[in-house]
Amino acid sequence: MEQEKEINKKIEELRQEIDKCDKLLIEVFQRRMELVMGILQNKRENKLPIFHFQREQEILERALSNLDEEHYSNEVEDFLRNILKISRKLQSQKLFPYNIVLIGFMGTGKSTVGKKLSQKLAMEYIDTDALIQERTGMSINEIFQNYGESYFRDIEKDVIAEVSNMKNTIILCGGGVVLNKENIIALRKKGKIILLKAEAATIYGRIKEDDTRPLLNGQMALETIEKLLQKRKETYKDASDIIIETDNKTVEEISTEIINKLYLMDEYVGKECSK
Ligand code: S3P
User: Fold this and answer.
1) Counting runs of H as helices and runs of E as strands, what totals does the chain give?
2) Residue 105 Cα to ligand 1 middle (Å)
3) How many A from CA of 212 to the centre of ligand 1?
4) By the number of CB atoms within 10 A of the CB, which of 91, 117, 230, 253 ranks highest?
5) CA 56–ligand 1 middle distance (angstroms)
6) pLDDT mean by block of 10 residues, the chain; 275 residues
7) CB within 6 Å of ligand 1 — which residues?
């Protein structure tokens, strides 16, 4: 009995120490975030490049250099990685307080670029085709085969209306989303629209083995792509706020270019930011 009391007392003391640690951690964390915001504001005012990803690596390496397993090195790494991610997310929300919408022809790299952007900016992403497949329980091919294109476009329109209302999300649109003006009006309300462009030959090279695109099934050829691309060219252009050429560029280069172009559209860049 007496012994149990002693143990409970000890545990209670340790808990109080933990509470003190948490309080300190929160204070230090908040201080860190304020410093990050200070740097961000400075960079915006002086038009300096943002998101110094190399610096994240340096922070991690420096912090871990003297630690070994006994000093919780794995856990410290996890902890720091999370802090860096939260910090990136906070900066993205400040810099890009809208949805980033990727449009473009099939095979222009919307999905790969979108995932990369989501990683770099610590922003959520959503793929409209994936959402359509999830909602209907069918693949895009099955929807086209069983119900036809106009049925698919109706579902697509509903999905676009829904995702357009999201906040701070990267929205990857199916290649035909631009065909309906209403979709673009909806997406533009809370988003900036980025067009990924590629030459027909590049697109053909990227998707020729792929049979998940019903519009090209059975007629996968450079000429088919050229024709459809030509037909949609102006519509894509008219819908976009930013155009990115993707030929001969890596995903890393394309996503960095998007971030930089969006950053330069920021009305505060080069001016003193209000607090
Ligand atoms: C389409 C593009 C596809 C998909 C559907 C129709 C189009 O999306 O939505 O097959 O009309 O261009 P991806 O561009 O993501 O392949």
Assistant:
1) 11, 5
2) 7
3) 9
4) 117
5) 36
6) 92 98 98 97 92 88 88 93 96 96 97 97 97 97 97 98 98 98 98 98 94 89 96 98 97 96 88 72
7) 106, 110, 129, 140, 174-176, 213-215
